[in-house]
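Our preliminary data section would be incomplete without showing what the modeling component actually yields. Below, a chain of 242 amino acids is followed by its predicted structure, encoded as tokens that our downstream tools consume directly.
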Amino acid sequence: MVGKQMVSVAVTPNGYADAVHEGRFVMPEERRMPFADFLDIVEGKRTTSGVFYVQKQCSNLTEEFPQLLPDIDPHILWMSEALGKVPDAVNFWLGESAAVTSLHKDHYENLYCVVSGEKHFILHPPTDRPFIPYEFFQPATYKVNEDGSFDVINVQNAEKVPWIPLDPLNPDLGRYPEYSHAKPLHCTVRAGEMLYLPSLWFHHVQQSHGCIAVNFWYDMEYDIKYNYFQFLDSITKAMNAV
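Predicted structure:
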């Protein structure tokens, strides 16, 4: 039964996993728990500290939810035919409304399918790269204490992580004035709908409470599109260094 299945859950104090917090790139505490216990937290049957989100991105649908596989297509036929390949990963997402995915990009062609609830995307095309700031941050993880409080623990002997410090929900234009030239797109994906999110597009994601989604990641081609982005990225870095 899926309720007894042990699954990986991201736990944060504020809903922001893999995001910049107080000058560090902070990753969630990853906790293993029975799926039924996680559902009790999402449904409010159990009170606990923090925000809980099933969001592990290593094909967790196939690895941690094998009971659901008969109900889900292993790939999206038209996309697989168009790309000439099958997905590299299929991920399952479920969490609280406070869970937020910070602005970032992926090296995957992404098909995002909402099963129930809604996902709210802020999207930027790769051409907005000159207006989107990157900085380097010490990596760290959240650690939940017995009293429910959270500590931030640095990852020792780790290289700094390049990440976007700007929050598109409340951009600090005094610190990052170039973002005022960006042209964000706002998109809501509802139950039964699918979003094609091309590789290298920047995206920030919110969701309704208890939203269930499945996404299919196809490896991107390192072709002229990638070369163009790398060229644009290099010019932006050079201009910022002046």
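The radius of gyration is 19 Å. The first helix runs from residue 35 to 42. Preliminary results of this kind motivate Aim 1 of the renewal.
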